[in-house]
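Changelog note: in this version the structure field was regenerated for every chain. One regenerated record is shown below for reference.
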Amino acid sequence: MSHNHVDVLVIGAGPTGLGAAKRLQQIDGPSWMIVDRNDVPGGLASTDVTPEGFLYDVGGHVIFSHYKYFDDVIDEALPNESDWYHHQRISYVRYKGLWVPYPFQNNISMLPKEDQVKAMDGLIDASLAATQVRDKPKDFDEHIMRTMGSGIADIFMRPYNYKVWAVPTTKMQAAWLGERVATPNLKLITKNIILNKTAGNWGPNATFRFPAEGGTGNIWIKVAETLQKDKTRFGKHGEVQLVDAENKRVLLGDGTTVNYAKLVSTMSVDYLVEAMKDEELQDLSKGLFYSTTHVIGVGIRGERPERIGDKCWLYFPEDNCPFYRSTIFSNYSPNNQPKASVKLATQQLADGSKPTDTSAKEGPYWSIMLEVSESSMKPVDQKTLLADCIQGLINTEQLKPTDEIVSTYHRRFDHGYPTPSLEREGVLTQLLPKLKEQGIWSRGRFGSWRYEVGNQDHSFMLGVEAVDNIINGAVELTLNYPDFVNTRQNTERRLVDGAQAFKKQSNGIPVRPNA
């Protein structure tokens, strides 16, 4: 059994772990190592390729940023203009056979008249009631009722969010919302109804960029390639078997023991406390909830139809399809699917029937990626899910019954969404400090369990800021003040300038003031 010792050990090579490693390498002070059980870095931001050559991300990822440091790192990894495609978000909500521009609550003017009346009644009631309310909403459902009223709640917000989160809105808190949910402007909505106008381009991802090659996962592969190879252990020999917090050591899959002074763990915090064999923390973590995500991919032969056009991603609140979102993944990059010259056999027609001609034929090709949530409150039949989703594509007029399907993909991700449950903050305000007392910074989408800072840029910076906190006691703004970082451009850190300001050591061991 071999032994290693590092000042800072990083578990996990998704965006958060790579952020921590990148910062440690930049500061060039404490010794460090990053480990991951997967051969390819990326975590929940990775990309799969089907045998037929269709690419699918682990869900609907796009790159938009609140941080200059994140931009610097991404631009270093993929530095050429040809490495990227830039897009204007074109998103719709499917409702009663209509494509309603996103966000739904700002485009009531597109609904049938009876639904416009229902929505406006609720909005007016909510606006009048808001003048009398002083306390904060007790849950997400109450927030919806206060800001949008019963009409939009029943038409869209309740059914859609149940499909996303796999729990009712009454079981979710409201503190996480921030820039995640557009608050309706009653005057603007009224004006748009009278003038029959639409509103769009709300939110931080109104424009975004996407890698030309390799999907989202290629970003993180390229970021990992900028790290010192002798400080990375990816694959079976990087798999964590045991975290011995008392003795500050981690046992890896090949029998190697790594001793550390500080630990940045980006593994799901419920898995972390299991690896620690800490019964108290395991009991505490049981108060955290999550949903499972199924990613479904469908590759189709033929020209992209006009009805699909340049749409990016689409939302589905109704029960005529299992998925809550579809992404026209072939629109993000022409390299997300095989070239037209590639010959593929038709596996089935969209209506489930067998093709009369099973010989391999040329394209062109296009693709759709779907997301379906699952929980104990919203079970999923995995055996029929793919077929149900393809039927849902027909029901929502994304596919025609006779469309030729040449490739399908289905992968289940047990930890898909960290649920902002009513119990979440009560757990995290105990669990994360208890881990930190033992020298463990648990960070990341599931490491710190805060969905509101769970995008790729947030996740990356959670790792960066954890390292700065370890070394210099710097405040972790992303973890502790989500609304603050989400409402400004965070320019304090840069990849080239200022790193040495954080280089504070004592005998090679990172220290924090008052630690």
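Spot check on this record: Residues 290-417 form a domain with the Polyamine Oxidase; Chain A, domain 2 fold (CATH 3.90.660.20). DSSP finds 14 helices and 21 strands in the chain.
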